[in-house]
Amino acid sequence: MLRSSLRLPQPFRRAASTAGPGRRLLLSTPIFYANGPPHIGHLYSALLADALHRHRGLRGAGPSRLSTGTDEHGLKIQQAAAAAGTSPPELCARISALFHQAFTQAAISFTDFIRTSEPRHCQAVCHFWAALQDRGALYKGTYEGWYCTAEEGFLPESQLTERVDAQGCAHKVSVESGHEVHWTKEENYMFKLSAFQDPLQKWLRDNPRAISPEPFYQRVLCWLGEDLPDLSISRERSRLQWGIPVPRDPTQTIYVWVDALVNYLSVLGYPESHGEWWPAAHHVVGKDILRFHAVYWPALLMAAGLSPPERIFVHSHWTVRGQKMSKSLGNVIDPFACNERYTVDGFRYFLLRQGVPERDCDYYDEKVVKIVNSELADALGGLLNRSTAPGINPSNTYPCFSETCFPKVVDYRGTEALGRAAAEDYEFVVSVASLPLQVAGYFDHFQIYKALECIALCVRQTNGFFQRHKPWKLDRKDPAEKLWLDTILHVTLECLRVYGTLLQPVIPHTADKLLSRLAVEPEERGISGLTFLPRYNGKPCPFEGRQLGPDTGVLFHRLEKSSQHQIERKRL
Prior knowledge:
Blueprint: E1 25-28, E2 32-33, H1 40-59, E3 64-71, H2 75-83, H3 88-105, E4 112-115, H4 119-134, E5 138-148, E6 153-155, E7 160-164, E8 170-174, E9 182-191, H5 197-206, E10 211-212, H6 214-224, E11 231-232, E12 234-236, E13 245-246, E14 249-254, H7 256-261, H8 263-266, E15 281-286, H9 290-303, E16 311-315, E17 318-320, E18 323-324, H10 335-342, H11 344-354, E19 361-363, H12 365-388, H13 423-433, H14 435-444, H15 448-469, H16 479-502, H17 508-517
Parallel strand pairs: 1-3, 1-15, 2-3, 3-4, 10-16, 15-16, 17-19
Antiparallel strand pairs: 5-6, 5-9, 7-8, 9-11, 12-14, 13-14, 17-18
Helix pairs in contact: 2-3, 6-9, 10-11, 11-12, 12-15, 12-16, 13-15, 14-15, 15-16, 16-17
């Protein structure tokens, strides 16, 4: 096939429907490869996207969708099905159901679960291929190189190293994954990736927030400064039958990564209705698939006449007691077992609190128990229990605030204690008042762990405030003491209301339980209008004097210590 003239992309224009306040946004996880059951790395990707999706909804930022699903084509699945004595469709149906079940159990608020074996997706892929072909981005040529079956791709020499096996034989392996590669030569369709080096560099220079965190943005810039060879995007049908055939060429199968990446358009109704949403898309991906999402995918989109996604959020991996998760080591962690052991909200909190996107993070049972018990059961749950206990709040109401006991000051720094409030109480109140904006900023910068760190610090400060003033020692029959006692409780419950509201994207069930106990109605749980302690600023508080919700018991039960060192994967 002769090379046709390639139409390079014009400057990107953002569709009117995706601009400004109230705009639409697609949040997405990767679609997960259906050759094995889910593990906590998959769950972590989904939780990050879910927390961003929930936070956006609570901000009232406009319509949003969250897509996830399973990637069901390719040689790995073809081989895994053969090894399991089943067919690829049967294997994919079983594994896809496990992912759907895992994400449903973990309260992932997905609006679309796509499978690449669905007709709607196959039609979208064929249309996308035709767009590439029509615009001169493809040609047929002989390709040879090192092919990695596990990664479903050809790897350049720069991404390979040698490893000696137990028999002393040297093998070429991927530097990134350690998977073995084999020299392969075949006639394939080639994508003119080399033609997009300059457009990709310009896209990133013009959009410094396109890839977060910053180290991954810099990594992609480095890649784009190297040679960018054309990309093989099909396989011979004789080698790979389980995949989408190339339109009008039954001898070739579309490369699994091209197939998989188009899922972000398929869920939006490509090629008919995607324009209402695209390119307002934020992809959450693991660092191992960064090249596919930050180099190949934007280039393919440009070649098809579409804009790249707005943002790509990248995260690192989870290790287990310092070791990489691997089937051979038997340390692959099962999310179903984790949800049973730590509760859904407990494990959600741990992964989002401890997961730092820039670096690999470590899982082990004792760490989960310590963090969840300390921050959810003791600090947050204990505070709610103490401030609503019948002995200290016998009327079971949201008590009144006294400006006399806690007068407003313009500058708390260096201020002597006024009323009954101590100087450090003013510093604490300022910290809580600034929390909603801090949290919003951290979510926007893909630093959910920092948002949770700030919330945990404020919870500790609130416990310190409560402990410092010892309301249980105050005499409710004394009018002056009662004013101060009620003020302490009012401030504490206001803090808990803020924490419950801000924690909804992370621990939805626990946050709902907390807010229901405080009698905060569903329509009062948004983040955009969240204010703290309005009475301190001379404004009315809608909760003051309100009857609290029913006591549903302990907010979060402490986890028992376990003798086991890890949660073993349950056999399928």
